[in-house]
Specification:
Elements (H helix, E strand, L loop, with lengths): L1 H35 L1 H9 L3 E5 L2 E6 L2 H23 L4 E6 L1 H4 L9 H4 L12 E2 L29 H12 L8 E5 L5 H15 L5 E5 H13 L3 H9 L3 E5 L8 H16 L3 E6 L11 H8 L2 E5 L4 H14 L6 H10 L4 H18 L5 H7 L1 H5 L7 H12 L3 H4 L6 H17 L4 H7 L5 H16 L3 E6 L2 E6 H12 L1
Parallel strand pairs: 2-3, 5-8, 5-9, 6-7, 7-8
Antiparallel strand pairs: 1-2, 4-6, 10-11
């Protein structure tokens, strides 16, 4: 009898828990709608996502990889904030493919399967290689790498990086090991890494290769340690003919993972196997990266990708329009290319938004429509800065080194430079306070918030600030300092 009572109580508890989760999901949806507006919510969420909540994990079920990439890159912060508002605490977020949604049309007036050609590949951190070598659960999002050399638009800003990438594959003995490609967000680094892997598969099908993010490398390394399968992990990493690691700067401030990667690199290099790396900063500008790794990275070919020029941007827009089988007038392409100058993904997002609007309104795209529909988008599309750019600019202005900003030193000049660096990073990047702190020497988010508050106070009263530069003592008004720093960053 007691067993039956316990079972009934258990069922009642589970039912209450389920109802509570459903209620919270409804509240999260309402919060998202309030944050982004009803129209955006109807287009991107109402019939296109399925939220499930369990043990502090919010799963966002979507129909396909494109939708996952789009929502993560455009609404990640809003979803996270909405969940925190409802839950009263931070909530982990995961994007998954929902089989039921995949079988339905995921959006009114739009065929997202058509629009999803060449989605932003690095949003979902997938580890992909030969089918037999796929080792990451994230690889279930794709069976192969989508980006190839033949759909990479070459211009003055990326020609050297493109030629170096081709040489790695075409030459019998690569002249560059490692090949280290660095540059800002959305400029084509991932495209070149995947292009190299696809070209190797095409020209040397017997060769083995592995493409993954540095985060995936770190996660697999930690898992191998926990499960005592370190030798199997090392075998996968060190017996491949080519290892391509994206976002290698992720290894900063992870000494044990850096040490493991150093041994992996040395093993591959000594056996004449190729290593290709991509980062948002030059090896010497990646803070808290071991000197041994920096020396290995700069011993090969280090090449930078800059923002594309107008002609290249126009051609990138044309190619993207062709890839989604749509028609966009040439003057509209020129308008987008002229207004979005530093980020390829921003351009593609603008084209996609315009195409979506025209499809929903059942009308043709024209310049007036582009000006209206993209007004808000273009206001937010100033050239994206990277924390490494800010770090080096601020360090040079105050006459110190980037490593000093990342240190724990509290010298007046260093502390002042650190405060301005944190303030500018929060203002000009999409990084959270926690991310800024982590990248600037492992500081916590409270330190960043305090630094921003201090600079805000200095700006409000245009206080006179003092520091010791390379040429001696310096004195300047706060607003003048900010103006000079932002002018240099532009």
């Amino acid at each position: 009898m007691r067993s039956i009572v316990r079972e009934d109580a258990c069922r009642s508890t589970c039912l209450d828990s389920s109802r509570n989760a459903e209620s919270q999901v409804g509240a999260i949806n309402a919060a998202i709608s309030a944050k982004i507006g009803q129209q955006k919510f109807r287009i991107w969420f109402k019939n296109s996502t399925r939220l499930t909540l369990s043990d502090g994990l919010l799963k966002v079920g979507v129909a396909n990889q494109f939708m996952a990439s789009w929502l993560q890159s455009h609404f990640n912060a809003e979803i996270t904030d909405a969940a925190k508002t409802v839950m009263g605490a931070d909530c982990r977020l995961m994007f998954t493919i929902d089989s039921q949604l995949a079988a339905q049309n995921p959006g009114p007036g739009l065929n997202f399967q058509t629009l999803s050609a060449n989605p932003a590949p690095s949003v979902l951190s997938a580890s992909v290689a030969h089918p037999a070598q796929i080792t990451s659960p994230a690889a279930t999002f794709a069976n192969k790498l989508k980006l190839r050399f033949d759909n990479f638009i070459v211009g003055p800003s990326n020609e050297l990086a493109f030629n170096a990438s081709k040489a790695v594959v075409c030459d019998k003995q690569s002249p560059f090991n490692p090949l280290f490609i660095h540059g800002g967000y959305g400029l084509g680094k991932t495209h070149l890494l995947q292009g190299i892997c696809n070209e190797l598969r095409r020209t040397r099908p017997a060769a083995t290769w592995l493409y993954m993010s540095a985060e995936d490398f770190a996660n697999q390394f930690v898992l191998a340690l926990k499960t005592k399968k370190l030798e199997a992990f090392r075998g996968r990493m060190r017996q491949t003919d080519l290892l391509a690691i994206d976002d290698i700067h992720f290894l900063a401030s992870k000494p044990s993972t850096q040490e493991e990667f150093l041994h992996t690199f040395n093993t591959l290099d000594l056996s004449g196997r190729q290593v290709i790396l991509a980062s948002d900063a030059h090896p010497k500008m990646i803070t808290q990266l071991s000197e041994k790794l920096v020396n290995r990275f700069v011993s090969g070919m280090v090449v930078k990708i800059d923002a594309p020029d107008f002609k290249t941007r126009c051609e990138i827009c044309r190619q993207y329009v062709r890839s989604i089988s749509k028609v966009v007038p040439e003057d509209v392409i020129g308008f987008i290319a002229d207004n979005i100058k530093s980020n390829i993904r921003e351009m593609q997002g603008a084209v996609l938004k315009l195409v979506a609007f025209a499809a929903m309104q059942n009308t043709k795209i024209n310049l007036a429509m582009a000006n209206s529909v993209l007004a808000e988008h273009l206001e937010r599309s100033d050239p994206m800065l990277h924390i490494s750019d800010i770090e080096s600019t601020v360090a040079e202005f105050f006459g110190i080194t980037p490593s000093a900003i990342n240190s724990s030193k509290k010298d007046q000049t260093i502390a002042l430079a650190r405060h301005f660096c944190m303030y500018l990073a929060r203002k000009h990047t999409r990084l959270s306070s926690s991310e800024v702190g982590r990248l600037l020497g492992g500081k916590n988010h409270a330190t960043v918030l305090l630094a921003c508050k201090k600079v805000d106070g200095l700006v409000a009263r245009d206080a006179q600030i003092h520091w010791r530069g390379l040429a001696g003592n310096k004195v300047c008004q706060t607003k003048d300092v900010l103006e000079k720093l932002e002018k240099e960053l532009r």
